[in-house]
Design a protein that fits this description.
- The complex is a heterodimer of chains A (220) and B (243).
- Helices cover 81% and strands 0% of the residues of chain A.
- Chain A is an all-alpha fold and 220 residues long.
- The longest helix of chain A has 43 residues.
- Chain B has nine helices and ten strands.
- Chain B has a six-stranded mixed β-sheet, sandwiched between helices.
- In chain B, helix 6 links the parallel strand 7 and strand 8.
- In chain B, helix 4 packs across helix 5.
- The longest helix of chain B has 16 residues.
- Chain B is globular.
- The N and C termini of chain B lie far apart (39 Å).
- In chain B, 47% of the residues are buried.
- Classes of the chains: A mainly alpha (220), B alpha/beta (243).
- The interface between A and B is medium-sized, with 17 and 25 residues.
- The complex binds adenosine-5'-diphosphate and magnesium ion (MG).
- The site of adenosine-5'-diphosphate has 10 residues of chain B, from helix 1.
Chain lengths: 220, 243
């Protein structure tokens, strides 16, 4: 028991180094995927057929390719086209693009849940499309969007471990390196798991709160 | 002010409007009546550019209503609309609903718009409800907020689409009362309604729509008391004596 605690004390600082990159990759790709997802969703509901079609194609393509393959593509294939990215950049962009598809579907569902009468009311007072989205539709859709958005956040936190496959020294990769050099598999991976839980459990609690606050059947 | 000339409109293969010709003069109150599904809402929506039409012409003060043209914004702000189901913005208070268009679409100074918004809400009898959200209001109160929202745009005319049809019977009167006072002040109004008492008392003219055409048109008292067209007679019999 004492050795375990002593080992944990030595490993923790190294794993926390990895944790830093996990947070960086998660937040970076979350920001990018949110913006892109909103763009695809707005294209889908624009009412302009070719825009909607292009967005649908993009989203389906992204959903249809494993995230790992998308990461490899950006990290290993893009340099052949002269776009060389660091592993960290590639992982943020790769996960950001991949997850934009899931955000897009969530945003679209939220927007389409809004009563059509709201669109008519906005148009009848002369609002243009963008103002209607910004001032009428999105503020209402956010209640529908938030709970699933929190769930996607949790998935992204866990999937940031895929960045390890393109050499980003985040939590999982740090753990792997540590375990293979010390053979203390149980101590290392228990710590890694606990560190992920220390981030995901509060998020899960937050989503639970969102669902109670905004989810189906909640009072407006 | 509003002129329709041989307006046609189809949804797929279903021709809803088969050549509608009619007009609303400045200061006039015109009631549009007719059976459910006859295209009354569609006419209002075409005038406001919420819906496109296929043939004929709709003009507002001489300007053609064309949904695809930039001029539609001006026409929409000039033709305010009041909906059957109110369509208030649920995330905004009564006052915010009223000033949304003036401040954000017409870019009026907020202080001015807010002052006018309060006056308008007071005028429809809701001086104590500025900060209430739609969910906290009764149907009659919501529809009066919607009328204040329409008035806040300082429109040339207001289009009403069955404004009392979604209300409990005891709340109909307060909305009709507000509409009547608007009519007395000379507001130009085109009203789709099944309230024959209102039509008889307030309307200058009545248009009866059936089968995609205006089958009868005339002074309110004449059309409602002594309809000449058998379809109008039949409709009025059913509306006035539902059982
Ligand atoms: N967006 C639409 N798509 C297809 N059909 C429609 C649409 N809007 C209205 N209609 C049809 O057009 C006809 C007239 O509708 P409407 O103008 O709402 O009638 P009213 O207001 O007189 O009850 C109805 O048969 C209705 O089903
Ligand atoms: Mg209707």
């Amino acid at each position: 028991m004492q050795t375990v605690l002593r080992d944990a004390g030595t490993f923790l600082p190294i794993l926390l180094q990895g944790l830093k990159f996990t947070v960086l990759v998660t937040l970076g790709s979350l920001a990018l995927s949110t913006v892109l997802g909103l763009v695809w969703a707005l294209m889908r509901v624009s009412g302009i057929a070719w825009l909607a079609f292009v967005a649908k194609m993009i989203v389906n393509t992204l959903r249809g390719i494993p995230i790992l393959v998308q990461l490899f593509y950006i990290y290993f294939v893009f340099p052949e086209f002269g776009v060389a990215l660091t592993a960290l950049q590639a992982s943020i962009i790769g996960l950001g693009i991949a997850y934009s598809a899931y955000h897009s579907e969530n945003f679209r569902a939220g927007i389409e849940a809004i009563d059509h009468g709201q669109i008519e009311a906005a148009q009848s007072i002369g609002m243009g499309w963008f103002m209607m989205m910004r001032r009428v539709i999105l503020p209402q859709a956010i209640k529908v969007i938030l709970p699933p958005y929190g769930n996607i956040m949790i998935m992204m936190l866990k999937d940031s471990s895929q960045a390890s496959t393109i050499t980003v020294a985040e939590l999982t990769l740090q753990g792997q390196i540590l375990a293979s050099s010390t053979f203390k598999n149980m101590t290392v991976y228990t710590l890694v798991a606990l560190l992920y839980l220390s981030m995901s459990l509060p998020l899960i609690a937050f989503v639970g709160w969102l669902e109670r606050r905004f989810g189906k059947g909640a009072r407006r | 002010m509003i002129e329709l000339s041989k307006v046609t409109k189809s949804f797929g293969s279903h021709q809803v409007l088969k050549g509608i010709t009619g007009s609303v003069q400045r200061g006039e109150v015109v009631c549009l009546i007719g059976p459910s599904g006859s295209g009354k809402s569609t006419i209002l929506r075409c005038i406001n550019g919420l819906e496109s039409y296929d043939g004929g012409a709709i003009t507002v003060d001489g300007a053609k209503v064309d949904r695809a043209d930039r001029s539609i914004v001006g026409i929409r702000t000039a033709m305010a609309m009041v909906f059957q189901r109110f369509n208030l913005f649920p995330h905004r208070t009564a006052l915010e609903n009223v000033v949304e268009g003036p401040i954000h679409v017409k870019k009026e100074p907020p202080a001015e718009a807010l002052a006018r918004g309060r006056d308008l809400l007071a005028r429809v009898g809701l001086a104590d409800k500025f900060g209430s959200y739609p969910a906290q209001l009764s149907g009659g109160q919501m529809q009066r907020v919607a009328i204040a929202r329409a008035l806040a745009m300082q429109p040339k005319a207001i289009l009403f689409d069955e404004p009392t049809s979604a209300l409990d019977p005891e709340l109909v009167g307060e909305v009709l009362g507000v509409m009547k006072s608007l009519a007395e002040e000379g507001m130009t109004m085109l009203v789709v309604t099944h309230e024959m008492g209102f039509a008889r008392e307030v309307a200058d003219r009545v248009l009866f729509l059936d089968g995609g055409v205006i089958v009868e048109e005339g002074a309110a008292r004449e059309v409602l008391s002594a309809p000449r067209n058998p379809r109008t007679q039949d409709f009025l019999r059913r509306v006035l004596k539902p059982i």
